[in-house]
Design brief:
By secondary structure, this protein is an alpha/beta fold. It has helices at residues 3-11, 30-43, 57-66, 90-97, 111-120, 136-149, 164-176, 190-206, 210-215, 218-221, and strands at residues 13-15, 21-23, 47-51, 73-77, 104-107, 125-130, 150-159, 179-186, 234-241. Helix 5 (111-120) packs parallel to helix 6 and helix 6 (136-149) crosses helix 7.
Length: 255
């Protein structure tokens, strides 16, 4: 593992471009990083993309795995990387210190602006990690654009799939698009386990009668396991693209 990444994970701190030591947050765990690296090691992608850089932890995991693949390139999109109220350029700083600066292509733009630009240039990718805005419409636009870039048999991974908007997006993908779940990464902490148990109880109850389905929320009435989405408490889901989009112009499937 790259020394910069190892130091961040070991201490929980990183440095700003001015040398200030700050505690990291909003980053993926060592285990989830390993999950991403396993997929990359198997897929061996040469063109990858990431939405959301923050302190650069996920990008460091991805680039660390890509370093073993000749000519691999990683596109990163984050409109807030330079914000002094948020990430203060730390993600880019960490990638540079780690020696990955020649591997990355960075866009400090909203993804709904940067992604169409890449599409218009005829770009193609083999792997994408989406961890940007978690509002449903923004996440849907991210997926819609990434799908245009993603080659058939490529993989797109979503973080925070337990969040309602992202969970609903995953349901859309599995029911309306030619994608299947490659694998998923479950929650691994006590609080999340409790949340999973509660959701599982609601899902079981919601299957008892039509009345229960009206009482309980919609997402509790159709378990994610029925849609091959893995555990309801999954933190991260990887989808494989099986084919190009060939739906009729008016296609719709309830999700």
């Amino acid at each position: 593992m790259n020394r910069v990444l190892e130091d961040i994970l070991r201490t929980g701190y990183t440095k700003t471009v001015d040398g200030e030591s700050i505690k990291i947050n909003s980053n993926i765990s060592r285990e989830e990083g390993g999950f991403l690296q396993e997929i990359i090691n198997e897929l061996k992608p040469t063109r990858t993309l990431e939405i959301g850089l923050a302190y650069g932890v996920s990008a460091l995991f991805i680039c660390d795995a890509l370093a073993k693949i000749p000519s691999a390139r990683h596109v990163i999109i984050d409109p807030c990387q330079g914000s002094q109220d948020l990430w203060k350029g730390v993600g880019l700083r960490n990638l540079t210190v780690a020696g990955f600066q020649d591997m990355i292509e960075f866009y400090e733009q909203p993804s709904h602006i940067a992604l169409p630009r890449l599409i218009s240039e005829g770009r193609e990718i083999d792997f994408a990690f989406i961890d940007g805005a978690h509002a449903f419409d923004y996440a849907l636009v991210d997926f819609f654009c990434v799908d245009y870039l993603l080659r058939t048999n490529g993989v797109v991974v979503f973080d925070d799939t337990g969040m309602p908007a992202i969970q609903r997006l995953c349901r859309f993908i599995i029911t309306n698009r030619a994608y299947t779940v490659l694998r998923y990464f479950p929650y691994n902490n006590e609080a999340s386990s409790k949340g999973y148990s509660k959701r599982r109880l609601f899902k079981k109850a919601s299957q008892l009668s039509p009345v229960a389905k009206r009482v309980f929320k919609y997402e509790y009435a159709k378990p994610e396991v029925d849609l091959s989405l893995g555990l309801p408490g999954s933190q991260c889901i990887a989808f494989r693209k099986n084919a190009a989009d060939t739906r009729a112009w008016n296609f719709y499937h309830d999700f």
